[in-house]
């Protein structure tokens, strides 16, 4: 996959890469966000409760877009999320 593909699905760009369908990529973007949201919440349920829904959605969108998360496994997100919080709340 190209960098443009990853940039789109992580919300770093809204430019649909050549050869891809916007509707399909929007679905994939949502699935990436949903997977990250569910995995992070499973480790840190109190964060979602304390933030409220709007702030939680913004936090997860920022994490997916801006973090250094590179693994293809959602199970690796816990440490990446903690690193993201440390960098962005200092």
UniProtKB/TrEMBL annotation:
Naturally occurring in which organism (per UniProt): Aquabacterium lacunae
Lineage of source species: Bacteria, Pseudomonadati, Pseudomonadota, Betaproteobacteria, Burkholderiales
Protein name per the record: DUF2063 domain-containing protein
Every Putative DNA-binding domain range: 3-85
């Amino acid at each position: 996959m190209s960098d443009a593909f990853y940039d789109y699905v992580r919300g770093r760009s809204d430019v649909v890469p050549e050869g891809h369908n916007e509707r399909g990529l929007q679905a994939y973007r949502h699935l990436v966000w949903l997977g990250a949201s569910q995995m992070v919440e499973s480790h840190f349920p109190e964060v979602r409760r304390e933030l409220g829904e709007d702030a939680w959605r913004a936090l997860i969108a920022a994490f997916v877009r801006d973090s250094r998360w590179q693994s293809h496994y959602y199970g690796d997100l816990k440490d990446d999320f903690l690193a993201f919080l440390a960098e962005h709340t200092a």
